Structures are given as C-alpha cells and as structure tokens.
Amino acid sequence: MKVFCIHGAFSTFRSFNYIINVIDNRNNLKHSNFTGFMPISYNMNETLNNITDRTFKEINECNDEKVIVIGHSLGGLIAADLAQNCKKISHCITISTPFGGVTPFHGGDIATKISFYYSNYLMKIRNTKFLCPVTPIISSLDNVVSISSQTVRSDLYYHEYPLNHFEILLEYEIALIIENIIVNEINPIKEL
C-alpha cells in the first residue's frame, strides 16, 4: 500500500517530512505491505483539474491494490476530488483543507485565485459523495483557512486541533492519526 502525499499551494512534498519521519521511526509498518510515501508535486500554473487527472493516472498505474491519499490545504482539495472519483483509494486524509474556499483576508492573492477561478471545482468537491472514508483534520487557529471553510461539509467527522495552518504538519498526534489509518487499511478490523 502506498500513501500519496499532496502538498499545499507554493509548498513541496517536504512539508510532510515530520509526519513521515515519525511514522518511519516508530517502525509499526515495517513488516506489512506498506510500500512507502509517494510525493505528488505540482505548481500553481497548472489547473486543479490537470493536477487531479495526472494524479488519478499515477495512482491507477501504481502496482498497489489500494492506496491512501493525504492532502494539506490546496492539496486536500485535490485529495478530496480524487476520493470522489478513484476506486483504488481506500482512505483520504485532508489537513487544513479549504472546502469552502479561502477569503482574501486569510489567503491573500492565492485566495482570490482559488475562490474565483476554482469556484466550480470547489462546488463539485462540496457536493459530491466520497467513494471512501475521509478523515478531515482541521486547524482551529488557522491563519490561512477559516474554520468555517474547513468544516463546510456536514457529512464528515472532523478532528480539530488548536494549531495554525503549518504547525499542524509538525504535530506528533497528527502523525499518529495518519499511522493508525495506514495500519487499519493494511489490516482492517474484521466484524464478528
């Protein structure tokens, strides 16, 4: 099982380094069919549909039977879109994701671009059913994405942490949540 990591706008895969290091150092996935973390990189000159289509193809071409996607901020929107369309995804984790868009006050110029240019993309993500479980992790002290934007979907159970938009990626407990999801997807609990 691979875990595809999709970074936020103007960031890189390295934003997941702390989480990956915590999980790797705990060695709980050492003797399993976990095959590693895969970076999904993009730049802001690409359309979200192009990024999603490219990632969808990459997921479907990997040899793993099922995968997990994790996305931070804008990457969470891409991960959510994939979770609505790709049957190979067994779980989606979103972190500080602006399901409701970003206001110019919180996100500056990128907010205008996301909210205006991607309004149809945002509407689709807000209104389409997921094909797999989704675990949204929200940062309640977020200085980029408002709580109301992170919690706009009423069909999800949110995990809220009093951290800002970037600190949340450096939180040990977040790494443990992600590790537990990976473990449970590899070895699902069977109902009696």
Give a brief outline of the structure.
The protein is an alpha/beta fold and 192 residues long. The protein has helices at 17-26, 48-61, 74-83, 104-117, 119-127, 147-150, 172-186; strands at 2-6, 36-40, 67-72, 89-95, 134-139, 159-161.
What are the SSEs and their pairings?
Layout: E1 2-6, H1 17-26, E2 36-40, H2 48-61, E3 67-72, H3 74-83, E4 89-95, H4 104-117, H5 119-127, E5 134-139, H6 147-150, E6 159-161, H7 172-186
Parallel strand pairs: 1-2, 1-3, 3-4, 4-5, 5-6
Description:
By secondary structure, the protein is of the alpha/beta class. Helix content is 40%, strand content 17%. The chain has helices at 17-26, 48-61, 74-83, 104-117, 119-127, 147-150, 172-186, and strands at 2-6, 36-40, 67-72, 89-95, 134-139, 159-161. The protein is globular, with a radius of gyration of 16 Å.
Q: Provide the β-strand percentage band.
A: 15-25%
CATH topology: Rossmann fold
Nearest-integer average pLDDT: 87
How many structural domains are formed by the residues? 1
CATH C-level class is Alpha Beta
The shape is globular
How many helices? 7
Strand order of the largest sheet: 2-1-3-4-5-6
What's the N-to-C terminus distance?
Answer: 25 Å
The portion of residues assigned to helices is: 25-40%
Label the CATH architecture: 3-Layer(aba) Sandwich
